Amino acid sequence: MSGAAESATIPITVDFSGGLEMLFDNQRRHTVALPTVDPSGKPATVAFLIDYLCKNLMRDPRAELFVLDNHIRPGILVLINDADWELEGEEAYEIQPNDNILFVSTLHGG
Amino acid sequence: MSGAAESATIPITVDFSGGLEMLFDNQRRHTVALPTVDPSGKPATVAFLIDYLCKNLMRDPRAELFVLDNHIRPGILVLINDADWELEGEEAYEIQPNDNILFVSTLHGG
Amino acid sequence: ANGSGRRLTDDEFERYSRQMIVPGMGKEGQLRLINSRVLIIGAGGLGCPAAQYIAGAGVGTIGIIDGDVVEASNLHRQVGHSTSRIGMKKVDSLIAHLKALNPLPTYVPYPFRLTPQNAADIISKYDLILDCTDNPVTRYLISDVCVLVCKPLVTAAAIQKSGQLTVLNCPPTPQGLVDGKYAPCYRCCFRKPPPPSSMVSCGEAGIMGPVVGMMGVAQAGEAIKILASALHIPAEAGGGDSSNTERNLQQPTLLIYTYDLESAVGPYTFRALKMGGRKRNCFACGENSTLTLEGIKAGTPDYVQFCSAPAPAVSL
Amino acid sequence: ANGSGRRLTDDEFERYSRQMIVPGMGKEGQLRLINSRVLIIGAGGLGCPAAQYIAGAGVGTIGIIDGDVVEASNLHRQVGHSTSRIGMKKVDSLIAHLKALNPLPTYVPYPFRLTPQNAADIISKYDLILDCTDNPVTRYLISDVCVLVCKPLVTAAAIQKSGQLTVLNCPPTPQGLVDGKYAPCYRCCFRKPPPPSSMVSCGEAGIMGPVVGMMGVAQAGEAIKILASALHIPAEAGGGDSSNTERNLQQPTLLIYTYDLESAVGPYTFRALKMGGRKRNCFACGENSTLTLEGIKAGTPDYVQFCSAPAPAVSL
Ligand SMILES: [Zn+2]
Ligand SMILES: [Zn+2]
């Protein structure tokens, strides 16, 4: 929507866990066709994906439960193909075709 | 060994579980370079893999705990890429590069 | 079994409040549990933890069948028994523990073995069966009777450092119905038992407590979700829906737990294996099956003989 | 802690025989368990099942710390308590249950909350710590003290239909040592707590019994393997080896359990997520860390404030 390039997209799966699925239609797995480049023409990164998810996939008005100050909120782990995104470059990681990105909120109950 | 074609091989992983690993060096995962064709020149199938494992990978003399009458013994499940081999054609399934074949003995204790 | 016409008591509200507020459970789910009857076959390493969570969750009627007595060597893993109850029937020992945990359910003791003669009478009184036994003879018997009297079956097993679990015959489908997609029975997935020489019991081969404990708790988890969400009610009869594939019932998952004493939990600790659906030629549920309750009672098939096919005289 | 100079008694042989014959355990593994000291922090939904299997396995000294008393709404999941013990301190209730299961271990009750003031004194007395608590304030405190007094930590959490578990700081490595590959602490993996508004407790959000039960049993499983195989002894000091990567310790696995009320166990029920190693800039274990035991006792850092950073006034 809103002027995003409609041309090429990257097919990926995005998973939500630990309660975050409630913000995304109560669905744990989403198939997403992410634009290959962000609005400024740079390759799509995880940072762009997070912004894209907020604008296009979130069905809950409480965006602040997912992002704070334009970054993923504290207490949410981001896993790129089942590895902590810190092993992959965090927000700067460039999304590859068929990547699986998992957002999981850390739990504290017991 | 014994005249198997040394030329082309298929890279696969073979896993053993439920106690079967004891027959194979106590190692749960083996990387195997399986000859592309069996001795008669036909594409490598699961049946050929089973025979190949007995001859090349088994470190235990008790082959009858793995095969009986040239077939996998009753009480062992064969999983091709995490699916019951009955969904894939059983012994006749032709091995593909990077396949994962899991042999798991069914358990009865409790 | 939808609990209409019954309200929760104050006791029940208080005791079950923390699970009733979980999204998807609610008062409806709780009432379904209260109106359900679960049979736990085996009061050992699987049955003890399974029973704790089945009883805790408030399943209304809980039958437990086991012919054994408590021994000291059981207690590292059979956490529903106690040292002072060594020598007591396991069924009575476990029910004593469960009553102390939750006095509200009705507990039905069967302090003897399940046999081809008594199996149908007992199993037919329940809505869901947990196979917590320790031998293939009883496992095949349980599954066959569950097919014939149409009961869902949550089966698990464990030995040494390995555990397995799967949900079978759920929703239950009459014998011979093989068109379309139906859930398999134990025989569909495990056609033949291993030769006796390749099998060992927990007594002979050993078992790590948490391995069998994990599988027992997981069995309770599967049973609770089936009953609370009515996954065992076929779509046609209402209560279920047709998206059985997404529910992992038609082609159920065999969960494998591998406990490695030399490494921490890792990528291969749990594996989810996809099993096939109901088999047209299954001895028990297939289209030409000759299995009947009368036959079973009269000794056909002979389960002991079926599980003692000749085999090499070595042991795994 | 290798048990030299001590033989197993006949009682112990009988009680632990079924786990001692498991390949890899043996008399050596059993003696290591008997000579070990485990602290279970929290006697609730995680602590109850964890304690049952820790006690059953014969860990020699078991400390349990919790300030709460048993309530009726605990009992659907806190299976080490009982209806007749409602109102009793959880620590005393759970130890009563464990003593009945296995009278051989020494049980040490701490019937109060873990605080920055008492944490180091208590934690330093044990070989391995289980974090079975229910709030981030205590979780960060436990991890920080485990770093400073060099103890391995098995941490787990659960709420509603989700569970998580990981093994941290194992083998324990002194603060500031970041060259090479060392195991991370809780802060390395979970740098900041969520804003309080996004958090809910099991009391507010609910919890399914088998979900927290699975995680508690899994904690016991990890603790038993660490102690029996001496995975917590660094390679240099003997007892371990250098193949830490294969042991899933340097880059530990975060196990995620997702319990779906509307489908049976399936491919996404368990996920194993690879976490990073120890972080150079970690507040607690990193190379410029200013964290000290004296500081913690004196109120630095302020754990309550750290876990109440301002955040939007809505709740998840
Ligand atoms: Zn069948
Ligand atoms: Zn750290």
UniProtKB/TrEMBL annotation, chains A, B:
It comes from the Eukaryota. Pathway: tRNA modification; 5-methoxycarbonylmethyl-2-thiouridine-tRNA biosynthesis. C-terminal thiocarboxylation occurs in 2 steps, it is first acyl-adenylated (-COAMP) via the hesA/moeB/thiF part of UBA4, then thiocarboxylated (-COSH) via the rhodanese domain of UBA4. The keyword Cell wall biogenesis/degradation does not apply. GO terms for cellular component: cytosol. There is a cross-link at residue 110 (Glycyl lysine isopeptide (Gly-Lys) (interchain with K-? in acceptor proteins)). Its main location: cytoplasm. It is found in: Cytoplasm. Keywords: Cytoplasm, Isopeptide bond, tRNA processing, Ubl conjugation pathway. Transmembrane segments: none annotated. InterPro entries: Beta-grasp_dom_sf, Mopterin_synth/thiamin_S_b, Urm1. The modification 1-thioglycine is found at residue 110. GO terms for biological process: protein urmylation; tRNA thio-modification; tRNA wobble uridine modification. SUPFAM superfamilies: MoaD/ThiS (SSF54285). HAMAP family: Urm1. Acts as a sulfur carrier required for 2-thiolation of mcm(5)S(2)U at tRNA wobble positions of cytosolic tRNA(Lys), tRNA(Glu) and tRNA(Gln). Serves as sulfur donor in tRNA 2-thiolation reaction by being thiocarboxylated (-COSH) at its C-terminus by the MOCS3 homolog UBA4. The sulfur is then transferred to tRNA to form 2-thiolation of mcm(5)S(2)U. Prior mcm(5) tRNA modification by the elongator complex is required for 2-thiolation. Also acts as a ubiquitin-like protein (UBL) that is covalently conjugated via an isopeptide bond to lysine residues of target proteins such as AHP1. Belongs to the URM1 family. This is Ubiquitin-related modifier 1. It comes from Thermothelomyces thermophilus (strain ATCC 42464 / BCRC 31852 / DSM 1799) (Sporotrichum thermophile). The lineage of its organism: Eukaryota, Fungi, Dikarya, Ascomycota, Pezizomycotina.
